[in-house]
Amino acid sequence: MERCSLVFFIYTLCTVFASEPSCPVLSRYDYEEKILERVIRNELVLQTTLQSIRETNEKVIAELHALQEEKVKINAVLEIIERKQTYIETYSASTLTNLSKALLEIQERSNRIDNDTIGMIHTS
After folding, report:
1. pLDDT tens digits for 86-109?
2. 26 contacts 34 by C-beta, under 8 angstroms
3. Number of helices (H), then strands (E), in the chain
4. What is the model's pLDDT at position 13?
5. How many Å apart are CA 19 and CA 12, to the nearest integer?
6. Of 34, 33, 55, 36, nearest in space to 44 by CA
């Protein structure tokens, strides 16, 4: 039991006289300096991010202008195609009309020739 009391006594002494773990105690100026450093680091990161955003924005604007130019070119080509299509449709319609007239004329001639031939056969 004495031994137990001695151990307990030593443990109590160690606990009483033990020092707390040392933490650096920062003065107000040290704290403000650390805050300022953090603010400056954040500002540098924000500047880098802003520069990256600006570069990306410039690229997007350049691509948008290129797309608009291509759209103008495509619209011009479509307009030309539509004009040519209208011309082809008109030309095809007139050609079809001319072919129909020619075919009717050929048929009429053929019928006249047939009628003349039949008439000659009957008269002979």
Report:
1. 999 998 888 888 888 888 998 888
2. yes
3. 2, 0
4. 66
5. 13
6. 36
Two tokens, residue 87: 């011309």
Task: Say whether pLDDT at 3 is over 60.
Answer: yes
Q: What is the mean pLDDT of residues 3-20?
A: 67
- Domain spans of the chain, in order of start: 30-97
CA 85 to chain centre: 32
The confidence score (pLDDT) of residue 119 equals: 72
Residues 51 and 45: their CA atoms lie apart, in Å, by 10
**What 3-state class would DSSP assign to 22?**
coil
For residue 48, CA distances in Å to 3, 36, 56 come to 68, 18, 12
- Gap between the Cα atoms of 105 and 95, Å rounded: 15
CA angle 113, 120, 102 (to 5 degrees): 5
CA distance 78 to 84: 10
Query: pTM of the prediction?
Result: 0.48
Q: Encoding tokens for residue 98?
A: 């001319």
Q: How many residues does the chain have?
A: 124
